[in-house]
Amino acid sequence: MKLKLAVAFAAATIFGPMASAQDGNLVIYNPAGDAGELVIDAFREKYPSINISAINAGVGELFTRMGAEKDNPQGDVILCASSEAFLSNPGLFEPYDSTELANFSEDVVAPDHSFYGCSMPLQAFIVNTNLLSEDQYPRTWEALADPMYKDKLVMANPSLSGSAYAQLAQMLQLYGWDMAEKVMDNARFVTSSQSVFQDVGRGEIEIGITGEVNVKTMMDDGFPVTIIYPEDGTGLRFDASGIIKGGPNPENAKLFLDFANSKEAHELVASTNRRSVRKDVAAPDGLAPTADIPTFPYDANKAAADRDENLAKFDALFNK
Amino acid sequence: MTAAVPTKPRRRRNIAPWVAGGLTLFVLVAFLLFPIGTTLLNSFAPSGERFAFGNATFENFTRFWTSAQYQTALINTIIIGLAVTVLSTIVAVPAAYFVARVQMPFKPLIMSLSIIPLISPPFVGAYSWVILFGRSGIVSQYLRDWFGFQMPPIYGFFGVILAMVLANFTYVFLFVQGALTAVDPHLEESARVMGASRWRILRTVVLPLAIPPMLAGAMIVLIEALGEFGIPAVLGGEVYVLSTLMYFQIHGYFNLNAASAIALVNVAITLIAIVLLLRINRKRRFITVGSTTRRAALQTGRGIRIVANLYVWGLLAVALLPQAVVIFTSFAEKWPGTRWPLEYGLDNYRYIFSRIVEPMQNSLMLAAIATVVCVIFGTLTGYIAERKTFPGKWALDLTIMLPFVLPGIVTGVALLVTYNSGPIALTGTAAILVIAYFVRRIAYIYRSVVAAVSQLDLKMEEASTIAGAGWSTTMRKITVPLIAPGILAGAIIVFTTLISEMSTTIMLYSARWKTVSIAIYERLESQEIAAAAAIGSVTILVTLLLVLTATRVIGKSMSELFS
Q1: C-alpha Rg value of chain A to the nearest Å
Q2: What predicted TM-score, i.e. pTM, was given to this entire model?
Q3: Do residues A224 and A243 both lie within one domain?
Q4: Intervals of chain B under pLDDT 50
Q5: Sign of the torsion formed by the C-alpha atoms of B348, B354, B356 and B360
Q6: Would you call A202 helix, strand, or coil by DSSP?
Q7: What share of residues in chain A are helix, strand, coil (percent, to 5)?
Q8: What is d(CA A236, CA A166) in angstroms, rounded to the nearest whole number?
Q9: Are A57 and B521 within 8 A, CB to CB?
Q10: Helix segments in chain A, DSSP class H
Q11: CA angle, residues B339, B342, B347, in degrees to nearest 5
């Protein structure tokens, strides 16, 4: 065992990227579930002498945790959290020029390099194939406003998360409030984003809007659902990873972020049905390549800037 | 009472109550009042800042009079809270009376099963109602196929109230059951000797005696109903409550100060309710646990036994439906939205085996330690609050109830901010989890001790003191044994609810101290619902076995205490 460790250590020293720290500790905050676990396991195999602990929780809990720990950060790095969360919590992250920087397109890296894109949580429609026949599927965002979908649509409340708000913001950027209001008439807005796709899968309701990974996972499990990308385009959004400012193990954090940005790690992420932001990593098996999916120039900055106003209007309409 | 009391009078000034009181005060201030107080003050600070006199603002509260959503949620919260509290009490009191006063087989099993509704694995537990009674639910489909009967939609007030009543009636049941068992049978016998009919005795003697513990239980139900997030999230549809909005503030806006503001409004509603309940309670003071050691005679009539068995088992059967669905789901290897699973097997258990041993050990250990700490300090404070008069007593009540009323995540953040740095740094340790659990659950013990002590004849303690026993001896040999049923009921609830505690744990756990609820959460995150159900099932089973053993072992030694 000792010999094995020594060999692994030697191999890591010789073949691994130039780094000063290859032992000690590393605390990873992981809101990305199984995708994060795969990346962490692969990193552990590469650097067996680093003692890794992972905290798995939702983006909301982890950012609240980081905020509360600000004076004495306990975590080193956060893996694959929505970029909206990074944007609304500036100052928590340490800029770093990753060795993989050249492999990222500019629009998925923070201008100050404090976070790097990970996966792309594209929003799509999940449709129950038992409850709707193919000619009844909604094909566009605009179609969701059709009265024929009254009470047949379930969405997560846009106040709930970056993804849920992005769904509303995309409709607003494409068509404006008139159309969004009609969609609101048709839709039920729930608090549990899990139950959006679970309910469609179990046949509680016909159509839902959710991340494509959720639909794909249900399809793989044999649920009677299918995935529809709106023909008027889904917005390109991304999840990101970054180093926590003032974390206890900054050198290992850099080592980990370089690995998390690598092609190898992004391929692991893609193996869990998540679409990588790296152009040299293919779309997950069974999902259309990113180039084939109709997209529109979603303005995430505008969406973020208008957020308070949009949500206030949403609340007012919702309670009418 | 055969408790041995030293006969030699002691003249030495007894410092024990001062030590106990001082220690309790320190614990309450350091771990409860200070962290939570400072966090709640932040609700008067702008988003992302800490409270100071310079930046005080009501910004976080203005939504309550500007936003229709907040007003609707406030009204929904009050409606649901009241309905759940009243219905839970109505459902629980007959069951408690039957179990306490009617001869029935399998009482330890009934007691243990009644605890199980308190363990509801996150998401999976609430979703069970959809699996059964949703539009494509199993029961709904058969009703439609066989009787052409269309179930009303489970979503909305109906489903939320139903699910919450069945999840929370246990609190009233346990407290009332405990009190009715412990009541001095002389009271009823006297009434009977004086010629009162059975119905009259029930109405004028037994039920009034059940009121203090019933109110203690109802208060807990109310607080649980106000703070519950999972059930309204899954079954509420578009019926939002304050806990929903709190969740929005943290998850959508990362705005803890706004969440604290909502929490504070939640606290205010609860306080109003508590004050009202205490008012009712104050008018009814009974000394019911006297010097006798006999238990009340059990009713053995055939009719009442049939009714009692039907009612109690029927109630348990319905209340345990979600847990039954969780266990059933854990054996489903393939269940892709069909009526019944397509394949059954043990694969889920094989898969989770390596992921559950350590979290289970951690959960059991943390819950056990926290329960002991709760029992010690909860008994002390409950006793002091009920027996002694001192200025600022209301503050003690308020302090203990506060974290109980707050959503777990707020308590978690409060402790994290306070003990993350500075002289006492506890982040990442087991200690901070134990402290959090203690702070969140001490109220259960406190409340049940207050209720139990209020029924305890002061003469018993006076007799002990006159006989020369010191404060601690009297406490140990007289008071605690007499209120033991109350403490035990509270302790079992604390232990059980802690095993699956989620909302505070997720803020405070470290990789070394991962608990069962985190293990469930991790499986849900990767959409492995059946695996999550398997972990949930093991949790339910382990808890059931532990509680069953505890009620048997402790129940036995307790009855020995009285003989």
Answers
A1: 21
A2: 0.87
A3: no
A4: 1-5, 559-563
A5: positive
A6: coil
A7: 45, 20, 35
A8: 10
A9: yes
A10: 2-15, 33-46, 59-68, 83-88, 162-175, 177-186, 193-201, 212-220, 250-260, 263-270, 300-305, 307-318
A11: 125
Helices and strands, number each (H, E), in chain A = 12, 15
A72, A160, A224: residue with CB nearest B337: A224
Decide the pairing of beta strands B332-334 and B343-344.
Answer: antiparallel
- Please list every residue in chain B whose beta carbon sits closer than 8 Å to the beta carbon of residue A27: 511
Tell whether B407 lies on the interface with A, counting CB pairs under 8 A: no
Level-2 CATH architecture, domain B73-341+405-562: Orthogonal Bundle (1.10)
A187 lies in the same domain as A297:
yes
pLDDT tens digit sequence for B267-292? 888 888 877 877 776 665 556 555 55
Compute the residue count for chain B: 563
- Asked if A27 and A75 count as a contact pair (C-beta separation under 8 A), the reply is yes
φ/ψ (deg, to 5) at B522: -60, -40
Q: How far is CA B535 from CA B103, B118, B482, B508, B529, in A?
A: 36, 16, 38, 21, 10
Tell me, yes or no, whether A184 and A300 share the same domain: yes
**Contact predicate A95/A114, CB 8 Å:** yes
CATH code assigned at A138: 3.40.190.10
H or E segment and range at residue B332 = strand B332-334
Whether A99 and A41 map to the same domain: the answer is: yes
In B, minimum Cα distance to A214 occurs at B527
Beta-strand relationship, A24-30 and A50-56: parallel
| pLDDT tens, position by position, A182-201 | 999 999 999 888 889 999 99
A190 and B236: CB-CB below 8 Å?
yes
The single-letter code of the amino acid at A7 is V
Contact of A221 with A62, CB cutoff 8 Å: no
Residue type at position B488: L
Residues in B closer than 8 angstroms to A218, CB to CB, are 336, 527
Residue A191: which of B131, B233, B334 has the nearest Cβ? B233
Residues of A in contact with B425 (CB under 8 A): 72
User: Does residue A137 sit in the same domain as residue A176?
Assistant: yes
ipTM: 0.85
d(CA A85, CA A41): 25
**Does A301 share its domain with A177?**
yes
Q: Which domain holds residue A76?
A: 2-120+237-287
For residue A64, what pLDDT is reported?
87
**Considering its fold, how many domains does chain A have in total?**
2
Of B238, B342, B521, the CB nearest to A189: B238
Give which of B333, B433, B506, B516 to mutate to test A binding, by max A Cβ within 10 Å. Answer: B506
Q: With a cut of 70, say whether residue A1 has pLDDT above it.
A: no
In sequence order, which ranges of B388-429 are alpha helices (DSSP H)? 393-405, 408-419
Contact A71 B232 (CB under 8 A): no
Map residue A80 onto helix, strand or coil: strand
CA distance B166 to B153: 18
Tokens of B541: 């089973």
Return the residue in B155, B254, B335 with the most chain A beta carbons within 10 A, the one to mutate for interface testing.
B254
Q: Which residues of A touch B69 (CB under 8 A)?
A: 315, 318-319
Q: Tell me, what's the pLDDT at A217?
A: 93
Bridge partner list, A120: A275
Using CB atoms within 10 A of its CB, is residue A14 exposed (0-12), middle (13-18) or buried (19+)?
exposed
Q: In residues, how long is chain A?
A: 320
Q: Do A71 and B420 touch (CB under 8 A)?
A: yes
Indicate the DSSP class of residue A101: G
Concatenate the DSSP letters of all residues of A277-288 into one string: S-TTSPPPTTS-
User: Residue A289 has which token pair?
Assistant: 């390549």
